[in-house]
Amino acid sequence: MSLSSSDQNSESNQRSAFVTTDWSLVLRAGTSDQVARRALEDLCHSYWYPLYVFLRRGGKSMEDAEDLVQAFFLRLVEINVIGYADPNRGRFRSFLITSMKQFLAKERIHRLAMKRHPGGLISIDAASADERYRLEPVDSETPERLYERSWALTVLEQVMERLRREFVANDNEPRFLVLKEGLTGRGDVRGRELAERLGLTEGAARIALHRVKRRYGELLREELAQTLETPAEVDDELRYLMTVLRG
Asked: What letter does residue 202 receive in the DSSP assignment?
């Protein structure tokens, strides 16, 4: 089956988008490329909570977990540990948790990084993080499984925030708040009620909900693509995320 010109352009655009993914930029983080460093910091912001719950479930105190996450990220930057990441050997999240385990094996040495840089690399609200951690499942989930689950939920939260910002940019946040309930399945916002709250006909409301679901799906794929090497990996990563969430 041949592709139409629009399909070909879409496929070409998708391939080109991967040239500048966060993963690709992070691999250059040891250089003076400030964009790459910013990409690394963004990933640190994305992954600090999954690493935090991994440490807490492993028996670390709130204070120790916060210090270790900060020291770990500082080490990534200082000696460019992340430069050794090989996209062909697995997912970035797997590389990160393996690196954390190796880091913990020399925990006392690496904690010196926090003495040299007491402010840390990123801002961490440990008190709020621990309140969130106490809501995590209290069953026998291993630190590794809890890390994966936290990663999956973090991805979804980031996607929802990106979607919210798009509505805000168009001065349409109230509509987003209504559609978000339909998107997440929270509350009874179907049919006539959804239409009334949006100020639309029922048909137009269904179309609006369909469009926001489609956009959410697009953003989810983009978010996952940021730490993958090729577009072909996105479907596998999406299936894995859903498997993690189902438990």
From this structure: H
Residue with tokens 């930029």: 25
Residue pLDDT, tens place only, 181-237: 888 765 555 668 888 889 999 899 989 999 999 999 999 998 888 777 777 889 999
Q: What pTM was estimated for this model as a whole?
A: 0.71
For residue 87, the 8-state DSSP code is G
Could you tell me the two tokens for 8? 């070909």
Task: Calculate the alpha carbon distances from 197 to 148, 178, 193 in Å.
Answer: 37, 7, 6
- What is the C-alpha separation between 210 and 242, in angstroms, rounded? 20
The 3-state DSSP class for residue 3 equals: coil
Amino acid at 193: E
Handedness of CA 173, 242, 70, 43 (dihedral sign): negative
**R_g over Cα of the chain:** 20
Residue 227: which residues within 8 A CB-CB, separation 6 or more?
A: 21, 22, 23, 43, 91, 92, 93
Closest C-alpha among 130, 165, 8, 160 to residue 57: 130
Length of the chain: 247
Helices (DSSP H) in 170-225: which residue ranges?
A: 173-184, 191-198, 202-225
Task: Let me know the angle formed at the C-alpha of 94 by 77 and 100, rounded to the nearest 5 degrees.
Answer: 50
